[in-house]
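Changelog-linked ticket: 2-acetamido-2-deoxy-beta-D-glucopyranose example.
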Amino acid sequence: MAFRTFWRSEKLLVGVILVCFLGSCLFSVYSLSQSDHTLDQVVGPFALPKVDLKKRLALHRTTLPKVFPNHNKNIKEKNEEKRPIFVPHVGLVVDSQQQKQDQNIEQHDTIEADSKQGFVPRVGLDSLQVDSNGKADTPAAFREEDFAPPNYNLHVFYYPWYGNPEQNGKYLHWNHNLIPHWNKQEAKKWPTGRHEPPDDVGANFYPSLGAYSSSDPAVIEHHMQQMRYAGIGVFAVSWYPPEQADNEGQPSDSLIPALMDAAQKYSLKVAFHIEPYEGRTDWSLQHSVRYIVDTYGAHPAFYRHTRNGKSLPLFYIYDSYNLPSKDWRNLLSPTGSHTIRNTAYDGIFLGLLVEQKHRNEIIQGGFDGFYTYFATNGFTYGSSFTNWKTLKQFANQNKIMFIPSIGPGYVDTRVRPWNGRNTRKRLNGKYYNDAFQAAFDTSPEIISVTSFNEWHEGTQVEMAVPKRVGNYTYSDYTPNSPEFYLQLTRNWSEKFKNLQ
Ligand SMILES: *[C@@H]1O[C@H](CO)[C@@H](O)[C@H](O)[C@H]1NC(C)=O
Ligand SMILES: *[C@@H]1O[C@H](CO)[C@@H](O)[C@H](O)[C@H]1NC(C)=O
């Protein structure tokens, strides 16, 4: 999601300004028509229906597979229902399916036997097949014995914005458009159009789970397993208010209950990464926080971090610099005009630090700390490892938190073909290891990983498989296995625990 602000075209900006202007006109009329202003009405565009959380949670719970050992089977059965398998002779369908199942059982037994000797990294996953539709077969599920203890100071940015026809009626995000260069002359030099999933996705790597849907319960379950395998404790889910989404996606707030239930099942915690949704202001943010805390705050998987003796929800606020610090101050300073401090909705609010000058804006805005998001070392002041020690000192002096964001690499040329200079090669894990080390050198309280699954920017640690389609060969993790970046994360997660 990087660069959204940087590369936004002028046209879009004008559009947004117009929409905001019209929106505020309409809204003023609306406000005037209300005699009695409550907070909810003042932030009218985001007025929310009362959500019966229990009902929603119950609904989702019934759709989640319940037991680990059967999980693989569940996914298989489901896929066989959904995906037509092209085989010329009907008789062979049964045979080959039977064969596949037999192989699976065998493999499962072998790993079970091995794991009794201690932790064995899962190696069976290289048996991944690409079926006759060109989709990757669903990888084997992890088992409980494979999991590492969750480290709640290790966070990862999670995107619930992917969709496919089976679950969502159409592809979402995998069919990403090729973003034109902001300079019209330059834009002419580059291809345009959209990717065509399932084989051609808007990413330089290809996911082990194929062109998946974020709302598929089997996918959610597998993601939780991957995170636990990696020793991650918290995932910060990219969040828009209900009814809102990014350009390529659909509203995803309705997925939160399923994500939280799954998180709970795997002892993971959920934090919120508040996107710069349309109309985001200090007022609407207050409303968003109230909504999130009221709707999800009672869920056992809702993440709270203890700071200065208080256990508080933690919010990452993407592109926080879009709003002047005097506005943030109204909300985040204890003396602000509509302060959230020392109310039931108080939290740990983390601004995004991109440029050096944002340091002071973050202090003036009343934030509790800052993070750096971008996985491209040297791209911004904040994302440059060499500045991290200074940033940490600055944070200490001002008694706020510095949460470095690190990633395994960066490449977004499948959606921004002209952006090659920001590519950072993975170097078989060296880039990621160096980033972790740079973060460690600041003795951080929390480290955030960019990302679990931002596939468009190639920052994912999620499992990826080798794939070649037509004349395009995806990047992959070879000579290492599809779960290599989960393994590296796992190792650092443990080191991080010992450091603290
Ligand atoms: C790859 O294939 C596409 C369509 O088949 C074609 O338009 C494109 O020029 C090819 N690219 C290369 C580098 O051969
Ligand atoms: C993780 O650490 C173990 C033990 O130190 C080591 O054997 C293994 O190679 C490491 N894994 C990776 C992917 O570096």
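Closing comment: Example verified and attached. Confidence is low (pLDDT under 50) at residues 4-10, 28-136. Residues 484, 487-488, 491 surround 2-acetamido-2-deoxy-beta-D-glucopyranose (ligand 2) (CB under 6 Å).
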